[in-house]
Design a protein that fits this description.
five-stranded antiparallel sheet, 45% helix, three-stranded antiparallel sheet, globular, alpha+beta, Phosphorylase Kinase, domain 1, 12 helices
Length: 325
């Protein structure tokens, strides 16, 4: 198969190696054609870790890096129907890149739909998104064999998290007080996590991983599913509802709804330590991604993960403030 880089770079690919982008597009075109689709007619969907095209009755998702999607496929096939995950039509690996073909589900990416929704619709969407995630949590006994206790932004061990924290310290020039707080919160998470109930978390409970059609109709992309405290999903839900794309806190009905959901679902003893630690780990992972991109045109302090991380380290706890006081 010959791969020709596209003459027009998609915004989602602007920081990627053009030759690797061409490989992924070539694999996607081949897979789509085999299942009755034409990539030229399909639209590029939101998402960073994988490249997804939707149209012609199918959705084709290709891993940017050479990874096997077999575990995710097994989990997706075991999910309860109420999760709304699209039916998997095929999966495989081509040139080392895992891929999944699912049936196309009518709806708009929730992140793209979000600005046009009314405050009441946004509040409704947050509740419905959480309800679908809860369906996964409730099915943990039958799903947990398909997921690991680490992955996504949850490191395998405290040492891994500490190493990420040190990279952040160096990149952001954190003060001594911030460094001390950072390690305190991370260590608190790893102490508390084994004491909490372990559920299968989506692991990336973001607006972009749901579809909206007057209501939330599907929860997608379980590549980062992980077994751990429910606060892993809760911190993402609250962040999505209370923080803008630019990393600024937003007061809204949706944000208030997310805080209320989290307050009712957090572990009664360790909840604060767990949701704070999970949120910190989330931003450390994102910061590593931004450091790899290394965009010299933007000041580090303007990076979204920098803003969120330093906010989480302040006395109030950033966007989690209502849950930490």
């Amino acid at each position: 198969m010959v791969h020709e880089p596209s003459a027009e770079t998609h915004p989602l690919d602007q920081h990627r190696d053009p030759s690797r982008v061409a490989v992924v597009q070539g694999v996607a075109a081949e897979v789509a054609a085999h299942h009755g689709g034409d990539l030229a007619r399909m639209r590029r969907a939101n998402g960073y870790s994988n490249a997804t095209w939707v149209g012609d009755g199918i959705a084709v998702r290709i891993a940017h890096t050479p990874v096997d999607m077999a575990r995710e496929v097994a989990l997706a096939r075991a999910l309860p129907p109420a999760v709304g995950h699209p039916k998997i039509l095929a999966e495989g690996t081509t040139e080392g890149h895992g891929w999944i073909v699912t049936a196309e589900v009518h709806g708009q990416n929730l992140h793209e739909a979000w600005p046009a929704l009314t405050p009441a619709q946004q509040r409704q969407a947050v509740g419905q998104l959480w309800a679908r995630a809860q369906t996964v949590h409730d099915a943990s006994p039958s799903l947990q064999t398909h997921v690991a206790s680490h992955g996504g932004y949850i490191p395998a061990a405290l040492d891994d998290a500490t190493a990420a924290a040190r990279r952040a310290e160096a990149a952001l020039g954190l003060s001594n007080a911030q460094r001390s707080r950072l390690h305190e919160v991370i260590e608190g998470y790893f102490r508390a996590a084994p004491e909490a109930e372990q559920v299968v978390n989506h692991g990336d409970l973001a607006l972009m991983n749901a579809l909206w059609d007057g209501e939330v109709v599907a929860l997608l992309d379980f590549e980062f599913a992980v077994l751990g405290p429910v606060e892993i999903d809760l911190c993402r839900l609250v962040c999505e509802a209370r923080v803008s794309d630019e990393g600024q806190r937003v007061d809204s009905e949706a944000g208030a709804a997310a805080v209320a959901i989290a307050a009712g679902a957090m572990d009664p003893i360790h909840g604060s330590a767990l949701i704070h630690g999970a949120a910190i780990l989330d931003q450390l992972r994102d910061l590593d991604i931004w450091l790899a991109i290394d965009n010299p045109q933007e000041r580090v302090e303007d990076w979204r993960p920098c803003r969120l991380l330093t906010g989480l380290l302040d006395a109030e706890g950033g966007y989690l403030a209502p849950l930490l006081t």
